[in-house]
Amino acid sequence: MRFSNAFVPAGAAWSSPFAKWQGSLSGLHTVHMAADVTTKGLARAGIDAKDLDTLVYGWTVPGPKIFYGGPWLAGLIGAPGITGAMVSQACATSAAALAHAAAQVELGGSEAAVVVAADKCSNGPHLLYPNPAGPGGKGDAEDWVWDNFSFDPWAKNSMIQTAENVAKEAGVTREEQDALTQYRYDQYREGHDSGLLAEVLLMPYEVNPSGRKVIATMTDDEGVFPTTAEGLAKLRPVMPDGTITFGSQTHPADGAAGLVVATKDKAKAWSGGAEPAQLLSYGTSRVEKGYMAKAVVPAAQKALDHAGLTIKDMSVIKTHNPFAVNDIYFARQMGLAAEEMNPSGSSLIFGHPQGPTGARLIAEGLAEVRRRGGGYLLFAGCAAGDTSAACVFKV
Question: What region does 104 belong to: left with phi over 0, alpha with psi -120 to 50, or beta?
């Protein structure tokens, strides 16, 4: 899919800090958290919610009354006259929601859309589905978060098994994964210390969903632990005879992120004299059962082809990398060094709340390209079901 009239105003992409599982955001309703983060993000960007005409809300973990999620969220951010789709596509939710909003703008259905993605891995719902044929009429139970992390009903494996499958086939060693994990941690610290993350994250973030009482203040991401080569080497593989440890994979998290997509005129007016970023393309892919990490390569290539560009044209490459294996495989296939990717950090380090992870990475990538004086950004990331999504921006 190629776009020619979908733009992101300068500064109009943001994220909450990501909280560790059962951390500072665990007690919030996801819609209230999304509204709080979006309100703060729009205010920082200098955009009045009343000037928006569409909202696209992405989520993957349901909460009470999510049936009303889009209109409810629009009302809470001060735009009660608008609505839009709710999008859920596992870890590709942010990219899919962005593509949906951009298509609305591209085709003239919208002049200014806000894309909001929010999820909590904490306190995920425990569901009971009626089953009159069960023993004694007993229902079928599902733990929404953990059951779906652990088992793909089509491929019949867990997510970590897909990464181990790719590691085995591609010959990715435990030592390579540990070394890249350490490098990604150092990149995150450098981005943090340089102030780049502060350009994206709403920090300090006052958890204030009701607008009346601050219930917590986050001054940084939660769940990012000091990482050393010695510490990584001491960890045992998660699976018997495996190569992946709890250090070389991401951790479940909570958070919200978003961005505005608008026509060129609207985006330019909201950019404070800077040039808005242009969304050029979007691509998706799916690979064979049980090889999720592979899917990032064809999705990225599809997005690059739609944009008429190559991987060598990219100024910044940001990936959702739930496993270090992902980036090692991607770099090999695309003819890169893994160290060239993910300046300022990635989801391998700061955590993965599912829906908003991609939006945060896109926001970081846009800020990184601006710091370099402009260029092209590629975002790509895998998603459940051996799938992936990618998009290309011009800054």
Answer: alpha
In a shared domain, residues 169 and 253: no
Tokens of residue 92, six digits: 């590709």
Counting Cβ atoms within 10 Å, is residue 22 exposed (0-12), middle (13-18) or buried (19+)?
A: middle
List Cα–Cα distances, 339 to 24, 163, 342, 357, 361, in angstroms: 32, 19, 8, 20, 17
> pLDDT, tens digit, for every residue of 15-31?
999 999 999 999 999 99
pLDDT band for 202, please (50, 70, 90 cuts): very high
pLDDT tens profile 51-87: 999 999 999 999 999 999 999 999 999 999 999 999 9
Tell me, yes or no, if the pTM score tops 0.90: yes
Q: Which helix (H) or strand (E) holds 382?
A: strand 376-383
Helix (H, G, I), strand (E, B) or coil at 298: helix
Domain containing residue 372:
154-194+280-394
Does 341 map to a domain? yes
Omega of the bond prior to 204 within 30 degrees of 0, cis?
Answer: yes
User: Residue 381: helix, strand or coil by DSSP?
Assistant: strand
Q: Phi/psi at 284 (nearest 5 deg)? A: -130, 165
